[in-house]
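Hey, can you fold this one?
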Amino acid sequence: MHENHEIQKHENVDVALLDQHGLQQKFPWLNVDDLALGSLGLSGEGWFDGYALLMAFRASRWVSVICRRMRKVLNMRR
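Sure. Predicted structure:
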């Protein structure tokens, strides 16, 4: 874990390596009895809602299908 931490720091990743005491201080609700180290990203962390992303892809697909069909209809009228 120390080697991975050094690689991340070398790549300018904003990350901290916390020992058991540091983990307990940062996360008092966490049981750290069986942990020796923890790696914590300090910035640039994020998440996404997978279901919302799936729905956006589906909606995008439907819009694309509808637009294609509308173009076909409009081309048939000309």
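The two ends are 67 Å apart (CA to CA). Let me know if you want another pass with a different chain boundary.
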